[in-house]
Design goal:
Mean pLDDT: 79
Helix content: 10-25%
Shape: globular
Number of strands: 16
Number of helices: 4
Low-confidence stretches: 5-23, 245-260, 262-270
Order of helices and strands: HEHEEEEEEEEEEEEHEEEH
Length: about 270
């Protein structure tokens, strides 16, 4: 296999361009305990067995693509993320139950759009106009899935949210780009947050999981609704950041493939 120097450079440039230097995936791992259970329709979550149970979960946020949002003030940025690919996946477990939200069924083929219904918020304290703001993050994820069976269908939607605020520690900051152009703040900032005193409002956090189910039975002609919510108090949140391969690594990896004659006239999809 003969490869010219120009072909080598062109191929390397194409490969390297497929990676974003600043791309990163950050996971917010959280834990706490169930503080309230509410069943608006048929009961799904048992309040007597779940109250006080440990809660663990995570939100994984893909920051490799920009998320459009708005800097509302110098200390508050928010985004209702829709009509684009989902940016988050999330999960939560308590008792003997585990739920994972991976945005199944939210792509609207007719309009070639996504409907992730995600929301991201970041607060950058510590003070504003002599009033306490605190540093904090709030994330809300949504997933919907329809399961068809012979005589009907089961629709299940999940809404998972969590948020925390800290009036003591100043660990988040909006960059200069955010202040000038409403760009996404750095959600990949390292966070190691603990609520050391659950009786004080200086550090506080919580969230909820809402589950809605609807069974449409063609023969019976009835719908059986389920609308149940578990609320929890947060005890800690910590981040884990994963970055994409570096340009240098990608350069040498692809060059090695080319020079070894492994790449032929094939279509490469990244």
């Amino acid at each position: 296999m003969n490869i010219s120097y120009r072909q080598l450079l062109s191929s390397i440039a194409l490969f390297s361009a497929s990676f974003s230097v600043n791309s990163a995936i950050v996971t917010y791992n959280f834990n706490g305990f169930v503080s309230e259970v509410e069943n608006s329709a048929h009961e799904f979550f048992d309040p007597f067995s779940l109250l006080g149970e440990q809660v663990t979960g995570s939100f994984t946020l893909d920051t490799s693509a920009p998320i459009r949002g708005r800097l509302e003030t110098s200390y508050y940025w928010w985004s209702v993320h829709d009509n684009d690919r989902p940016a988050m996946t999330s999960s939560i477990s308590f008792g003997d139950m585990f739920f994972k939200l991976n945005n199944e069924g939210v792509y609207i083929e007719e309009y070639d759009e996504y409907y992730p219904e995600e929301m991201l918020e970041m607060y950058d304290g510590p003070t504003y106009d002599d009033g306490h703001i605190g540093d904090g993050i709030s994330l809300k994820d949504y997933a919907r899935k329809t399961t068809l069976f012979s005589d009907g269908s089961l629709d299940r939607t999940l809404h998972l949210s969590f948020g925390f605020r800290d009036f003591i520690n100043d660990f988040l900051a909006f960059g200069e780009d955010t202040l000038l152009r409403d760009e996404m703040p750095n959600f990949a900032s390292a966070v190691s947050w603990f609520d050391n005193d659950l009786t004080s409002d200086t550090q506080s956090g919580g969230g909820s999981l809402r589950l809605i189910e609807r069974v449409d039975d063609v023969n019976a002609g009835v719908t059986y609704p389920v609308d149940s919510t578990v609320r929890f108090t947060l005890a800690s949140v910590e981040t884990i950041k994963v970055s994409s391969p570096t340009m240098t690594f990608s350069f040498y990896l692809f060059a090695a493939f080319l020079l070894s004659g492994k790449i032929r006239k094939q279509k490469i999809i990244f």
